[in-house]
């Protein structure tokens, strides 16, 4: 399957003059692989798309209809539906890749822009990925590093429903100082740092005080649009270290 098959469906849907013609288009749509179905539906105007799906409701078997209805929802709403049909994992992954291609910023500042503060880098990193996280319902995470006195962030790496990598590599010769991640709305605790997040921020040290992973400032983006920051006790000093000695200091940046 490919662009030719997509275009044959699009032509059939656009040129259908009767419900019978639309039904033919619906069957053509059902025969497409998910990675072809999504861009094919995108090529249709909203009226034609809705008409095909309405006719498909009565023309296709239940499983086939649920599949094309899922694809139409993804294209129309630019989001994985909350209620999903029982689709194979590869088809759900096709939908996520489609949305990432549509929603990822065309000119990411990851690895390029320099910021005078870590907070500014963390906020920009989260802002770039927030829409995508909520659309595909997967966590994304990355690292913040210091280079020549300025702060930068790495491109994000996709995780799962409620987990993501805490060790996204930074460029050689730079200082790893922070990490960021974004919770989708399906996360078990989307608006807050998890217990694991708090523990990870404190770093990993052996019994002989060999640092395997340094303590890092951690930034979190939430479904409500909040951006939160936690500074682990290991990075605090003076009165703040005494006040937040257990879980670290949390701030709401936005």
Distance between the termini: 46 Å
Number of strands: 9
The percent of residues in helical segments reads 40-55%
Number of helices: 9
Report Rg.
Answer: 23 Å
**Under the CATH scheme, which class of the largest domain?**
Alpha Beta
Largest sheet: 7 strands, mixed
Q: What global shape is seen? A: elongated
| Structural domain count | 2
* Topology order in helix (H) and strand (E) letters: HHHHHHHEEEEHEEEEHE
Share of β-strand residues: 15-25%
Give average pLDDT, whole number: 94
User: Uncertain segments of ≥5 residues (pLDDT<50)?
Assistant: none
Provide the structure class.
Answer: alpha+beta
- State the CATH topology of the largest domain: Cytidine Deaminase, domain 2
Proper CATH architecture of the largest domain: 3-Layer(aba) Sandwich
Describe, in plain words, how this protein is organized in 3D.
The protein is an alpha+beta fold and 254 residues long. The protein folds into 2 domains: 3-102, no CATH class; 109-252, Cytidine Deaminase, domain 2 (3-Layer(aba) Sandwich), CATH 3.40.140. 44% of the residues lie in helices and 16% in strands. The protein is built from 9 helices and 9 strands. The chain has helices at 3-15, 19-30, 34-42, 46-59, 62-77, 89-103, 118-136, 195-201, 238-243; strands at 140-147, 150-153, 157-158, 175-182, 204-205, 211-213, 217-221, 227-231, 249-252. Strands 1, 2, 3, 4, 7, 8 and 9 form a 7-stranded mixed beta sheet that branches. The chain has a two-stranded antiparallel sheet with strand order 5-6. Strand 1 and strand 2 (150-153) form a beta hairpin. Helix 1 packs across helix 3 (34-42), helix 2 (19-30) crosses helix 4 (46-59) and helix 6 (89-103) crosses helix 7. The longest helix has 19 residues, at 118-136. The two termini are 46 Å apart. The mean pLDDT is 94.
